[in-house]
Amino acid sequence: MLVQAKSRAFWGFVFVGLIAGGRNLNSQDPAARDLTLEKTLPGRSQTARDVPRGYALVIGVSKYEKLPTKSLRYPESDAAAIYRVLISQEGGAFASENVHQLFGAKATLANIKHELEVWLPAVAQPADRVVVYFAGHGFVVGSRGFLAPYDVDLQHIGETAYPMDQLGKTLADRVKARWKALFVDACHSGKINPDSTDEAIDDQLAHLPKTFLTFTATRNNEQSFEDPSLSTGFGVFTYFLVQGLQGNADNDPCDGIVTANELVEYVRAAVKKYTREHGGLSQTPQERGDYESDMILAVRHACAGGAPPPESLSFGALIVETLSDDVEVYVDDKLIGMASKDKPLPIPGLSTGIHKVMGVRKGYQPALEEVMVVPGQERSVTLRVQYRREYKKSSLDLVEKGEARLFKKVSGGSSFNPLSVYRASGQTAKDLEEAKTFFNQALKEDPSYERAAFDLAMTCQLLSDHECALKSFREAVHIEPTDAGARIQLGGALIEDGDADEAVRQLTEAIVLEPGNALAHSHLARAYLDKNVWDRAVEEADASITRDPAGDQAYLWKADALRHRAAVERNRDRKISLYQEAAENFRTFIRLTNFSSPVYEQFAYYAVGFGLGSRKHADRKASYNAERSTAYMGLCNCEHLLGNLLQARDYCRRALNYDPNEPLAYFFLGDVYVSQFNALLISDQCPAASASQCREYLLSARANYKKVVEINPDLEQARLSRGYIESIEGTLPLVGPKSGH
């Protein structure tokens, strides 16, 4: 008995060493060893300037679950605009994963409390900056002010509303950032209850702690106004807040930094001037708090038009008129809104200097004007978007020749749609190289031909010439900035390039142009997967699936995000549920892509590669194989951690059928064999009749770990594999007689 106890004690040590991190969920310790995803390429900076890291919470509620008669028009779209400017490189320069959004039905009391009282205090460090934005109803009961979450119930205020004093206390005492700013637009007509006058709400905001900037839409005795003629419709306060953060507040001096003082002075003056001149109204934004005046809130690359620093705050306005309908208006490459013949677009609050104003309409030549904005003046500019795009015949002929080698139009298709094409059978690398040459020549003949740029990008993608693809997608977007499809493909190329931040920005703009585009949401899910933001990845994947239930990639991104989320979940029941849900989504992806490769090659599959071990899968067949392999790997990992070892082993083997050189599949398979060995060890079968089977499991595990090291010795999994191989080799002499292997 003494000898057996010693043997079992030693084997128990090996058991712990081999599966520390690969244990299934039936174990007491549910930790899960995981994949190492490629990160954003090194050397990328958020902006051209070094600014403190930022975190933000953006809340907007227009319609309330239990207050149907108290709806507002623009809080949610205002909040969306704030989100976009905060993540912009010429704006807040916040990392997209650091800006959390609670819009509409998601802005529940529970979610607001979690973001304010759990998330922000946990992530913000003393050197950081924090912004909280709220647009919606505020109200007062007795002597206490509240912000109204989506699920507020006026019969149970204390349990369903968020107290303003609690917000102030949390920001002051628990959020440990150097720079903190709270922007609130909560004074609206249509008060919720008798006590909720605009004056009473403002008074409550005035009593927040003084240790951070509080900037509100109004002062006492005023209300906050909305204007449908501002861009796509805005609250006046938020419109100028966005304009200021985009750089128009960079006045004192004009140095590429928007400070708290500059933003406050700009927004206050602009709102006051605009409301007075448009209706004789009075609205004066009010700042409070003992904040640092040089708090950095936004950045820009340069002063507009290179204008010298003005002696005092100055801005002007443009009125954009068009000779056509449905013209998208861009100012300094930023989409502002739409103008039509009978509906000019006012653009107030522009900084002094020269601004580039462009009108874009699909299928027409864009109109571009450079306009000097004069302080205190309103100038009109007419954009003549009236001539259909006409391209040189030589360029048209070259594109036609290129497309004959690249792909064929769907029968009956009359208009060009790059997503409604299929690959020509028998296409070769020579065909693609010839197509590339034709498209390059077409662009030289006519640099304004977006279709040539897009086709060139697709061709380069199939040739695995990633630099060419990225450059050409950028050119297509530059030529036709309203083309959501080009932005979506650019987003995909940026993901492949490792620049998930810029991908998020491009895809967010694409969704503004086409809110119902499932592929844009799917690519966003993939971008957030790269950034290890699992919840946002699941959210965007769900948005894609809702719009297109047959969109296979969204299920893959959702499944892997759920798998990662499960790995860090501490609640055992929730962990099991997440792994089960992940497995179900992996299976859905496999079912939706369960067609043979020859048939598959006939379809357009302009897909983002998964990039687990590398980013080498550019063409469609390779992407298909890589993604099928990834799905089976995910299933292998999920079933392993759920304790279904035979299923897990089968799924890992299937993954290797699609990509026999995927080191992570071998790594997972090695883990499964170790767990099979452990299962026999725990049941005391290794010293007895099953000793040869125990030895076979260890030998199989060692062979798979060796394969990981052989394929890619630099992976983290290769480092782990070398340690496991050493442990296995030390254990093998104790496990039964040697077999023929």
Widest beta sheet: strand line-up: 2-1-3-7-8-12
Distance between the ends: 31 Å
In total, the number of domains comes to: 4
Silhouette: globular
Name of the CATH architecture of the largest domain: 3-Layer(aba) Sandwich
Secondary structure tally: strands: 22
Q: Which percent range describes the beta-strand content?
A: 5-15%
Biggest sheet: strands, sense, closure? 6 strands, mixed
**CATH class descriptor of the largest domain:** Alpha Beta
* Range of helix content: 40-55%
How many helical elements?
A: 24
Could you tell me the mean pLDDT?
Answer: 81
**CATH topology-level name of the largest domain:** Rossmann fold
Radius of gyration: 30 Å
Structural class: alpha/beta
Poorly predicted sequence stretches spanning 5 or more consecutive residues: 1-49, 304-312, 408-425, 597-618
Note the main attributes of this structure.
alpha/beta, Serine Threonine Protein Phosphatase 5, Tetratricopeptide repeat, Rossmann fold, 4 domains, six-stranded mixed beta sheet
What does this structure look like?
- The chain is an alpha/beta fold and 741 residues long.
- It has 4 domains: 2-38 and 611-734, Tetratricopeptide repeat domain (Serine Threonine Protein Phosphatase 5, Tetratricopeptide repeat, Alpha Horseshoe); 54-300, Rossmann fold (3-Layer(aba) Sandwich), CATH 3.40.50.1460; 306-383, Immunoglobulin-like; 393-549, Tetratricopeptide repeat domain (Serine Threonine Protein Phosphatase 5, Tetratricopeptide repeat, Alpha Horseshoe), CATH 1.25.40.10.
- Helix 11 (450-462) runs antiparallel to helix 12.
- The two termini are 31 Å apart.
- Residues 1-49, 304-312, 408-425 and 597-618 have low confidence and may be disordered.
